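>> Question from a student workshop board

For tomorrow's exercise we were told to take the sequence and the ligand below, predict the bound structure, and bring the output to class. My setup keeps failing. Could a helper post the expected result so I can at least see what it should look like? The ligand is tryptophan.
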Amino acid sequence: MDNETNIIPWCVDSGKINYSKLILQFGCHGIDGKLIQRFEEVTGVRAHVWLRRGLFFSHRDLKLVLDAYEKCEDIFIYTGRGPSTGSLHLGHMVPFMFTKFLQDAFNAIVIIQLSDDEKFHFKKEKTLEEYTKLAYENAKDILACGFDVEKTFIFSNTDTVGCDLYKTAVKLMSSITGNQIKGIYGLNLDNSIGQLSWPCFQAAPAFSQSFPNILGNTPIRCLIPMAIDQDPYFRMARDFANKYKNKGFIKPAAIHSKFLPSLNGHSKMSSTGENTEKYTIFMSDTQDQIKNKIKKYAFSGGCDTLKKHRRYGGNLKIDIPYQYLTYFLDDDDELRRIANEYGSGRMNSSQIKTITSNVICSVVQNHQNFRADLSINTFTKFFNKNRYFDTQKIHRNNLDTHDHRYFKTGCDFDIYFNSLNIVYKQLPVIEESELENQISDRSDKEEK
Ligand code: TRP
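>> Workshop helper replied:
Here is what the output should look like for this input. Compare the format with yours to find the bug.
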């Protein structure tokens, strides 16, 4: 494995990940326009902007989930969070916001694991009890995405493993060897037993047998939205299901997101490590903090003088404010306009930063309002698995899906709207002299 694509669950730090290569390496599949069109046909719901723009870019067996849904069979959704800090950051929210979208689209039960034990095994900075406390704190941020309480069960792993969930974990543990764990995760005999056994606990909730009182006694397929680094757990779960399919285990399906970059663009956004107070946007940040961070620390693809900027334009590929807009500004026409204006140098870097600040401030404000409105009763109810869960089906009218735009959707969506100007499109192969000619050609045209 080279550095660019060295992805194991607990040590992703590269901001420069080659996602297409990862699809090949992991053996998953890109999400293209055809699949998105099928998603809309089957669910009757327009694809989320992150699907449309290829930010959730890869999947395993999403087609089978759609087939099941089309046949009115039940499916369920599972995701999770390792509670390592008090407040979640913007990057953490991406899979959860998307999970909420999927809950509505499929009208499905969502199961959320808070892996306090995982963080205890791997981070080792706090006591187990402290990680459990953080799990409940983090749950408020997660639930503020607007999950439906009658269709959602969230749990701290240490408080909940037992009974059916533990039985699935035991079956996984009895079938998976130490060598497999070593092969998949790069762990070895110097790792603690807690670390070596953890993958079975993360995989167990991906099987409906773990929650019969919520999901019933007939096995149903699971869909797992996650950041791509979590995929190895579920490759293991899928191998297990393959081996035990005659015992009713169904291979979980998956849908993978790219990472939201940190403000300096060097790595994925992170809540631990150095300089998080500069380069990370926390969901608890005030509007002023967010504006200040973006203004001061967001890496700009603009040129260092206005004169140069007007001439060469901004480099959208490395500009963090622009990258954030591809996530959080829903309106394609407005995004296209900004790409054109900024890419051509008509809009300057402080202007795009102001736009991004406003967009992000409104996402965070919205979140904080939702979080504040969550009553203690509702919060407690989310954690109770012995209650009524709404598994009723709904029917939606068909959407018009005869549209040419699907060809350029998903993996094939151009998030730069053809606005990567000549300079940045052709770097680094282009010769200096050639570059000068092209630039003067372009400015000639602009002047005319
Ligand atoms: N391992 C994840 C983390 O470190 C947390 C997690 C637990 C998870 N169960 C999951 C993530 C299921 C995705 C799907 O944050």
